[in-house]
Write a structure and sequence with these properties.
This protein is an alpha+beta fold. It has a single domain (7-155, 216-328), classed as Bira Bifunctional Protein, Domain 2 (BirA Bifunctional Protein, domain 2, 2-Layer Sandwich). Helices cover 36% and strands 24% of the residues. Strands 1, 5, 6, 9, 10, 11, 12, 13 and 14 form a 9-stranded mixed beta sheet that branches. Strand 7 (142-145) and strand 8 (148-151) form a beta hairpin. The radius of gyration is 20 Å and the shape is globular.
Amino acid sequence: MAPRWHPDRFADRLPHLRRRARLITAIRAFFHARGYCEVETPYAVKAPGEEVHLCAFATERLHPDGRREPLFLHTSPEFAMKRLLVAGAGPIFQITRVWRNGEGGKLHAAEFSLLEWYRPGASLDGLIAETHDLLRAVLPPVVQCRGVTTDLADYERITVAEAFARDVGADVLACGEDAAALAAAAGERLRDGESWEDLFFRLLLGRIEPHLGRARPSFLTHWPAAQAALARRDPADPRVAERFEVFVCGIELANAFVELTDAAEQRARFLADRARRAALYGGTGADWPLDEDFLAALAHGMPPAAGIALGLDRLAMIATGASDINDVLWL
C-alpha cells in the first residue's frame, strides 16, 4: 500500500480534511462570539494525569546545566487549564494535541486532538445547553456517521441510573460498589476477577451505549460517585457526581464535569487512583510525582466552574461521515 502522503491516497482524504479545517474555523468563531479566550498550555508536563487506565508517553528535558528532567506528553490539558481558572483567565477554550499510549482503532488514535473548554460559574444544565448549541452551530442539522443518522434539533438527557434501569434492569446506585449485587441485579454471571468497575463498564458498553446518541444526541448524566474522576459530587445526592458524557451517531464524543474544587478531596482521589493503578499494573502506581502544583492551585481557590473535553477528530468524523478516525487525520 502507498504511504499516506502519496497523492493518490491523500486525494481520497482531502475532502474530509478540508471539511475538518472549516470545522475548526467554525468552532473558534463559536467560542469567540461567546466571550471565550483561546489559550495554549504545555504539551510536555511533569504529571500527565491520574486517570487509572491511561498510559502516558514519556520524554525528557535536557537543561543547559546538564540536568535531566523526566517529562510526559499530556493526556489532557485539564490540570493546566484549571490553573488558568485559578489565575483568573476564564472563560477559556483550547484546541490541542494530546497523547495516550497504547490506543488505536477506528475511533481511537494514540495522538489526537481535543477541544476543551471551561466557564467559571457554569452549571451542569448550562454546559449541556452550550454543548448542544455548539453541535448545532458547527454541524449540519442532520448528521450521518458509521451507519447512524442523528437529528441535532433536540437531545435526550438521561442519568446513568435511569439508563441502567431502562437497558439493564438494575438499580446501579442501590448496588453501591458491590460487584456481586450488580451482577445479580443485571442477571449476569460475575467473571473471575471481575471488579465492580469492570462489570459497570461491561454493562455500560454492552447494553447501554448501543442505545445512546442515535435518533438524537444523548447526554448521559450523574455518574456514580466511584466514577466521578475530577467532578464534584452532586450536593443533592452524594451517591452521584455532576458528570456527563455526550453521544452523537452512536459515538462517545465528550466527557464533562462540574469541577471539583476541594483540594483535600482531590488529593484523596489522586492517592486512591495511584493505589488502584499499582494494584492493576504494578509498581508504585505512577512514574511521575503527585501534581502538588495543581493541588496548591486548587487550595489557593479555583472558582466554581464546569468544563468539557470533546474529541475533535470524532467530531470531524461526524461532520464528514467518515467511518475511520484515520480518514480525518492529515497524516
